Description:
The chain is an alpha+beta fold. It has a single domain (2-100), classed as 3-Layer(aba) Sandwich (Glutaredoxin). Helix content is 28%, strand content 23%. The radius of gyration is 15 Å and the shape is globular. It starts with a helix and ends in a 20-residue tail after the last helix.
Amino acid sequence: MTELGSQGAERVLALSSDRTEYQQALVRRFQLPYVLMSDPSLSLAEALKLPTFEALGGRLYKRLSMIVYGDMIEHVFYPIFPPDAHASEVLEWLRTNPAHTFPASPGGVSKPGTRD
């Protein structure tokens, strides 16, 4: 988290289809340094057409990362592989794309990975 902050990341949020109670238990158990957001209805998946998959009788989010500035999705990392190297990939992207170089959003969300 410290390295991400040094590259301009203001916060890290995680989103899953798990219920809030389960997520709170995970945060306590693993002492996660970021906020977990619950979306059991997958409403964000529907709104942004995010990738999901079926498992154990339910629909789950596929792993992806988004860099968001204001109301604009600046970049999407997908697929995430290998997951244990992904934090380094995000750090490198932040280093080569400093926040102050991004154009102001015209009031809407851009297409993932594009600059309007």
